[in-house]
Amino acid sequence: MDKRLFTHPLPLKSVRITDGFWGNYQRKVLNEVIPYQWEALNDRVPGADRSGCIRNFEIAAGRAAGEHIGWVFQDSDLAKWLEAAAYALVLRPDPDLERRMDETIELICEAQQPDGYLDTYYIITGLDKRFTNLQDHHELYCFGHMTEAAVAYYYATGKDALLQAMIRYADCIDRCIGPEPGKLRGYPGHEEAELALIRLYGITHDEKHLRLAKYFIDERGQSPLYFEEEGRRNGNRFYWRDTHYRYHYYQAGMPVRAQRNADGHAVRAMYLLCGVADIARVTGDESLLDTAEALWKSVARRQMYITGAIGSSHVGEAFTFDYDLPNDTVYGETCAAIGLVFFARRMLELRPRAEYADVMERALYNGVISGMSLDGKRFFYVNPLEVVPEACEKDEGKRHVKPERQKWFGCACCPPNIARLLGSVSQYMLTAREGAIYVHLYIGAELDASLNGQPLSLRLNSGFPWQGRAELTVVSGSASGRIALRVPGWCRYYTLRVNGRPADAPTEDGYLLLDRDWQPGDAVTLDFDMPVTRMAADPRVREDTGKVAVTRGPVVYCLEEKDNGGSLHLLRLPRDAAFEIHDEPELLDGVTVLTAKGLRRSAAWAAEGLYAPAEACEEAAQTLTFIPYYAWANRGVGEMCVWVREA
Ligand SMILES: [Zn+2]
Description:
Elements: E1 8-9, E2 15-17, H1 20-41, H2 53-60, H3 75-91, H4 95-111, H5 120-125, H6 139-157, H7 161-176, H8 193-204, H9 207-219, H10 226-234, H11 266-283, H12 286-300, H13 334-350, H14 354-368, E3 386-387, H15 389-394, H16 414-423, H17 426-429, E4 430-433, E5 436-439, E6 445-451, E7 454-462, E8 469-476, E9 479-486, E10 494-498, E11 501-502, E12 507-508, E13 511-518, E14 523-528, E15 532-535, E16 547-552, E17 555-560, H18 561-564, E18 571-573, E19 579-584, E20 591-601, E21 619-628, E22 640-641, E23 643-646
Parallel strand pairs: 5-9, 18-23
Antiparallel strand pairs: 1-4, 2-6, 3-22, 4-5, 6-7, 7-8, 8-14, 9-13, 10-11, 10-14, 12-13, 15-16, 16-17, 16-23, 17-21, 17-22, 18-20, 19-20, 20-21
Helix pairs in contact: 1-3, 1-16, 2-4, 3-6, 3-16, 6-7, 6-8, 8-9, 8-11, 9-11, 11-12, 11-13, 12-13, 13-14
Bound molecules: zinc ion.
């Protein structure tokens, strides 16, 4: 591995998003999500589940009396909010928000114990029990999220109070957990500390942080299994004992380097793989890179929905087996699609390859933002591809699927997670190294970059996701080097122009390579053909046989009852039906809608009973109206499906 070829995102403040589509989402995060979630964390949203997050810190800091509220991982909700709010400060300075964050960080530091320990659940319920249930009690997960918040806040403001607190907590963990005699030979039940320690290491360059992260990866799944010993020693309940998951639920069924199938809880798997890829990058460890690549294929080529959702079973919020992708009982947690975006960006850092960016784009434009309502106030935890509202109510196997987004969950992992990703979307659109800039996502932005040490200001304009045009202009600076532009996997024909003239460029791993002396005013224009496409699934995906999903560019479409009437299962899309493309600026915050002449099978049934000899069924013409999947469930409750029968 040549580490000089690794790329990295530009600093947060070097990218200013100007994009219509993502700018709109970022405004929602700034204006709706962050203020709303602050109210939720403070238990001030009428009708929403109680969070208790701030209250727990007040109790832990001795400012209030009472019992711990919520889950053992409740602290992570505040951590993710702080991280999202830190990105918000970069997007738009806000002294009031910053003051509130400083006060909150003061409260967090006040709750920290003299030896650095910082987890409100055990501070309130009994410190003698800390680190006794690494398998299920999420202390290291909460540590990881608070560390990510500390890193983000440090980059946003230069203030390091929370960072120093988390360095003290890392020291405390390092004194208690590790391979040395006298320490607990444990690791996180819910991964996250690994990737967070690497982010911390990026600032501290303290070998201790890298060593601890690497230890967590290397010890996981080793025999004798720590979780088994821990359970025996402390009498912990093993919830997954009688399931086929057992320790695979925690990706601990075998050593990490030996794993070749993504298993168990999908969010945990993604966070683990982020840590694996990060450590491969920092240390140049080939075997970890092999593991990351194998598990990437297991997820992206065999266990991922067309929307970028992952985790097909609600039992364990987990992967099941290859090509098992039911549309109506899926879990597809918003956090898991977000985790897939995190993992994809890390794979791109190791090697710019369009497959990674294709999946990142698929998840972002579909299975991630489907998690939030267009007003930024309601959230999906589960992201189904097919919904019949009555089944969500009366079929216990589908009760986890909701036909409308919810206000705030008692377990509120997804809402602040989506906020921190949207707030930092600039960290996913491009990565760079010494002599090259790789554009992965066509998101409008102004960039302060450099090539071979020479500063270069760039502007990227894009019509994505509705139009396939992207323009990159050099605003100022002169530099020689490579700008590499991704050709999306969905695009078969494109034209490239440099300074208005048709141009040719070699491609490598799905990127157009433009090597030249860049001068102010230089402009690269790409026109990606963006036709409506009927997508089929691998025949091994049983649920999608005989059906197609309609896509255009990066956007996956769906049918909703609102436009097409109920009983969506009676609709069929003829193979030769032509699509009409309609721009609807007033609909669903501005979308492109697709229509086609389809068929509706008659619901008439002459027989008395449920079954009768089959006869030719009658079908009538009906226009089918497709809207972007991410925008479903914003106009009331009704049926929805992504995969439609072909005629
Ligand atoms: Zn979640």
